[in-house]
User: Fold this.
Amino acid sequence: MLKLSNREKLLLKILIGVIIVIMGYNFILLPLIKFFTSSDSTIISDKQKIEQLDRIYNNYKELETKRNYYMSLLKGESENISTLIEQWAQNSNVAKNIAYSRRNQTNVQNKYIRITTDMKLDGVSIQSLLKFIYEIENSNKLVNISYLRINKSFKSPNLYDVNLKIESYTLQ
Assistant:
């Protein structure tokens, strides 16, 4: 067996201590530091992903609410669009100015019915026309004006000839 002096024993203990410190630093301390720094960035990334999911969910809920609203309008009482147009024309004082009104019905994706009504109004005042358009657009029905053309009337400088295309939708 080898005999070591006290000085050699002390150096050997110091060397073992240095090796233990280096190994502890490399195998214990560095992995913990890397874990904590990467966990901070992971937490930030996960928070961003959760916020993005929350935005997507809010958009989904908003779209679902709109869809349910439109489906309730489609499933609601399906009044005759011609009757509604006549009623709106009476309310806005343009019923006497209707030159013609044509109605076409088409199927959309074998699930919905689109009813297109072409109308012409002769010699109507702009105030009455705006009231009529307001009645159509704010009727709380699935009705919209897809085409509008306004021309000066030959009858009077304050009157206009108007071509309209009104579309409405119902469930089949």
About this structure: The radius of gyration is 39 Å.
